[in-house]
Amino acid sequence: MSARDEILARVRQGVGKGDFAQRRAAALAVLDAKARGPQPAMTGDLVERFRNKAESLASTVDRVAERSAAPAAVRRYLEAQGLAPQIVTTADVGDLDWSGSAIAHAVRGAVDADRVGVSGCFCAVAETGTLMLLSGPRSPATVSLLPETHIALVDTSRMVATMEDAFALLRTECGGVPRAINFISGPSRTGDIEQTIVLGAHGPCRVHLILIGS
């Protein structure tokens, strides 16, 4: 018997132990209960907490009152960073007046040549300064993962306190889960080489968040 056959035989033996149907029903009951474990006490303004957490993770943050003001804020950021006014966007933010701010934009998935990707987000988690992005036809994951610079438009009305709240919102609004859920907490980073933090190792080296709402 090969090692593979031995491992699979042990798995089959383990699955056959006891009342499999009963154990399966018990596991499903736990999942359906959606019980939450201990969570931190969240006090104060969620948006301000999110901003502080995001900035501590090396994201930069701007804020505008209206969604229509987002393109001008993106243009200011691009100019400050010395980046060309050329972006690729997800469809959920592609309807904004980008040309009015003299920004060339394309609504599609990102490719290697794209330097700046602009996306929306499903929600934002104040506890950790994290974005929750759902993949789909209107929001391909490449836009937030492939370009060196990722700019996210974050509606402050979509701010939740904890990760558990984010998943509860997902279940309420979407039912099931999409093909991929991406959590973004600042620029990509690694400390693999001599424990020195390097940004942009496996994704964007810059993450800029534009909070939308008063």
Description:
- By secondary structure, this protein is α/β, with parallel strands linked by helices.
- The strands form 3 sheets. A 6-stranded parallel beta sheet has the order 1-12-7-4-2-3, sandwiched between helices. The chain has a 4-stranded mixed beta sheet with strand order 8-5-6-9. A two-stranded antiparallel sheet has the order 10-11.
- The model has no long low-confidence stretch (mean pLDDT 90).
- The longest helix has 14 residues, at 20-33.
- 29% of the residues are buried.
- It starts with a helix and ends with a strand.
- The protein has helices at residues 3-15, 20-33, 46-56, 70-81, 142-145, 163-174, and strands at residues 60-64, 86-89, 104-107, 116-119, 123-125, 130-134, 149-155, 159-160, 181-184, 189-190, 198-199, 206-212.
Q: What are the key terms here?
A:
single chain, 214 residues, alpha/beta, six-stranded parallel β-sheet
Instruction: Summarize the helix and strand pattern as letters.
Output: HHHEHEEEEEHEEHEEEE
- Backbone structural class: alpha/beta
* Number of continuous helical runs: 6
**What is the topology, as strand order, of the major beta sheet?**
1-12-7-4-2-3
Identify low-pLDDT runs.
none
Principal-axes geometry comes out as globular
Q: Quick check: average pLDDT? A: 90
Question: Mind summarizing the main beta sheet?
Answer: 6 strands, parallel
Q: Assess the beta-strand content as a share of residues.
A: 15-25%
Radius of gyration: 21 Å
